């Protein structure tokens, strides 16, 4: 799968070119070669966007392009910093990429000048994951005939199985936009089962949005920020449910809150059943206009506990377990059961008086 590596130019020469930017504290991605900067690589269109060359035009979500990519950062690339031009720590957010084309925000526009934080699905071979734009870079000549438009942070590249070659790796990857609303973009941020999540999990959401961290083992775990980490081996629907729950963790409780809205919209307040509806919708288990009450959920799906998901409902209340972690509106299991708001709770509560149901297949 490896393309012909293109060695990097020495750090002294490269830093001399963009020294003014580095002095300002921006960890700009420094590319393997400066050849072709500011021109249309490989004969591609040089239509401008934001003052810089737009070498690749990205289509709507699901439409992909094969492009040239290179890798930056790590011990073999001392010329690259660890703080992206967006101000994000690339060590804290390894799921990052740099859009190429120039050494300023205006000229690094090889993909049209994407806004910072833009998610893209990146596929290399049979492995795929989501990365977010947190950096910019100079660019260079074509790679295997494809315009070089994206630079992958070395830890993200490693999660795709790309071999680390002292910062010199380059090759073709496929990139595509992800859905921009609802839980779909968070689901898109989950690496496939073939992608290693790393020792500390893989945080896969842009700054300011809920993250989905993957954890080893069969159970979801509660994180310090109140969100949940999803089991890496859980079915896609289960991981999507956890991502959807993370969207509304900490929302205020209000009886009747959240009902009457399409489930692809985030409400200001929720009650027990509307919050469960939101999580079920995130997993693709109900339609966007589903508006189930706790009584409705007494007959949802199949009877009895499920392997991954169990709903407990009666006429007055509903709560559920997703991968072993309870989704509820209050700390019903006692003072060590987390916050009193909507969200994930670590302790098991009594199910007396509740009907157990589960989604078919889960």
What string gives the helices and strands in order? HEEEEEEEHEHEEEHHHEEEEEE
The domain count comes to 2
Oligomer: single chain
Q: What's the main sheet like?
A: 6 strands, mixed, barrel
Share in β-strands: 15-25%
- Which stretches are poorly predicted, pLDDT < 50 over at least 5 residues? 1-28, 30-53, 181-211
Which strand order does the major sheet show?
A: 3-7-4-6-5-8
Can you tell me the CATH architecture of the largest domain?
Alpha-Beta Complex
- Identify the CATH homologous superfamily of the largest domain: endopeptidase domain like (from Nostoc punctiforme)
Computed over alpha carbons, the radius of gyration is 23 Å
- Give the structural class: alpha+beta
Q: Total strand count, please? A: 17
Terminal-residue CA separation:
36 Å
Shape, principal axes of CA atoms: elongated
**CATH topology of the largest domain, what is it called?**
endopeptidase fold (from Nostoc punctiforme)
Number of helices: 6
The percentage helix is: 10-25%
CATH class of the largest domain: Alpha Beta
Summed over residues and divided by their number, the pLDDT gives a mean of 76
């Amino acid at each position: 799968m490896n393309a012909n590596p293109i060695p990097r130019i020495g750090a002294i020469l490269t830093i001399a070119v963009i020294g003014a930017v580095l002095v300002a504290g921006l960890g700009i991605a420094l590319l393997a070669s400066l050849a072709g900067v500011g021109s249309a690589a490989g004969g591609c269109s040089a239509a401008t966007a934001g003052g810089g060359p737009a070498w690749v035009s990205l289509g709507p979500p699901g439409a992909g392009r094969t492009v040239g990519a290179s890798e930056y950062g790590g011990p073999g690339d001392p010329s690259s910093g660890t703080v992206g031009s967006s101000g994000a720590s690339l060590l804290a957010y390894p799921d990052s990429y740099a859009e190429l084309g120039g050494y300023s925000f205006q000229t690094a526009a090889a993909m049209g000048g994407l806004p910072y934080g833009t998610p893209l699905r990146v596929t290399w071979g049979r492995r795929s994951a989501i990365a977010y734009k947190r950096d910019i870079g100079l660019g260079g000549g074509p790679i295997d005939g494809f315009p070089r438009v994206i630079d992958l942070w070395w830890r993200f590249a490693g999660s795709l199985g790309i071999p680390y070659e002292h910062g010199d790796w380059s090759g073709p990857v496929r990139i595509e936009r992800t859905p921009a609303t609802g839980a779909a973009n968070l689901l898109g941020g989950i690496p496939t089962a073939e992608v290693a999540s790393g020792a500390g999990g893989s945080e896969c959401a842009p700054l300011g949005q809920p993250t989905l961290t993957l954890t080893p083992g069969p159970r979801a775990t509660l994180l310090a920020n109140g969100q949940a980490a999803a089991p890496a081996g859980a079915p896609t629907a289960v991981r999507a449910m956890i991502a959807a729950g993370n969207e509304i963790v900490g929302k205020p409780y209000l009886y009747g809150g959240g009902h009457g809205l399409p489930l692809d919209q985030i409400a200001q307040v929720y009650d027990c059943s509307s919050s469960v509806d939101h999580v079920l919708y995130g997993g693709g288990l109900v339609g966007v206009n589903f508006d189930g009450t706790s009584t409705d959920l007494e007959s949802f799906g199949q009877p009895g506990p499920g392997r991954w998901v169990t709903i407990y409902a009666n006429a007055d209340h509903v709560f559920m377990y997703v991968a072993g972690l309870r989704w509820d509106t209050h700390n019903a299991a006692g003072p060590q059961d987390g916050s009193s708001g909507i969200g994930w709770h670590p302790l098991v509560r009594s199910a007396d008086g509740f009907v157990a149901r589960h989604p078919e297949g889960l």
